[in-house]
Amino acid sequence: MDKNEKWLQWAVELQSIAQTGLWYGEGVFDKERYERIREIAADMISYKTEIPVDKVKDLFCDESGYQTPKLDTRAAIFKEDKILLVQEKNGTWSLPGGWVDVDVSIGENTVKEAKEEAGLDVTADLVIAIQDRDKHNLPVYVHKICKVFVLCSVNGGQFEANSETVASGYFGLDELPPLAEEKNNAEQIALCFDAYHHADTWKTILE
């Protein structure tokens, strides 16, 4: 999906307006109109992507309340000037991470994901960057996502194959394996290296 296709931005904005209206609206007729706007947004995405409209509604129109971005954390773990990546079942590699659970903090989620995907006990030391995913990663998702990259220190543990990852390894910046670009790209990993080399003076990047 082309990052610059305006129709997706319009569909996301329509969904956001409709969701907010459904949450705060009081009149029956107003809610019917907002529900129709939400249906139109789902129809637009289904028409352009050929994804069945029922599936689009399940993924895109199943939340309530004021619409806010989802959060994704990524752990940057280093050893001897190399960064830890975990291999997914499709063969690509990523920083350990995932969606932030509703009952944990950013730091706690980073620690949890490092344990689950890499088998490591870590501490979350420094927020490297908080990024708008749409500005950095493809494909574009219908949900707005903020990615949080966190510099971590290892206290122990070892990798074990699990339901999400099949291997782990440390890589230099000039020897990166095929990346899961929808989760992290070479530019983002280079940013993590930069933060690692300048941790004492690093200022969190917001972009």
Please describe what this structure looks like.
The chain has two domains: 6-60, no CATH class; 70-206, Nucleoside Triphosphate Pyrophosphohydrolase (Alpha-Beta Complex). The chain is built from five helices and eight strands, in the order αααββββαβββαβ. The mean pLDDT is 91. The chain is 36% helix and 28% strand. It is of the alpha+beta class. The longest helix is centred in the N-terminal third of the chain and has 22 residues, at 28-49. It starts with 5 loop residues before the first helix and ends with a strand. Strands 1, 2, 3, 4, 5, 6, 7 and 8 form an eight-stranded mixed β-sheet that branches.
Gross CATH architecture of the largest domain:
Alpha-Beta Complex
| CATH topology call of the largest domain | Nucleoside Triphosphate Pyrophosphohydrolase
CATH class of the largest domain: Alpha Beta
Helix content: 25-40%
Strand content: 25-35%
- The topology string of helices and strands comes to HHHEEEEHEEEHE
Q: CATH homologous superfamily name of the largest domain?
A: Nucleoside Triphosphate Pyrophosphohydrolase
* Structural class computed from helices and strand pairing: alpha+beta
From the alpha carbons, calculate the radius of gyration and give it in angstroms: 19 Å
Into how many domains do the coordinates divide? 2
Number of helices: 5
Overall shape: elongated
Instruction: Give start-end ranges of low-pLDDT stretches.
Output: none
- Quick one: how many beta strands? 8
Largest beta-sheet characterization: 8 strands, mixed
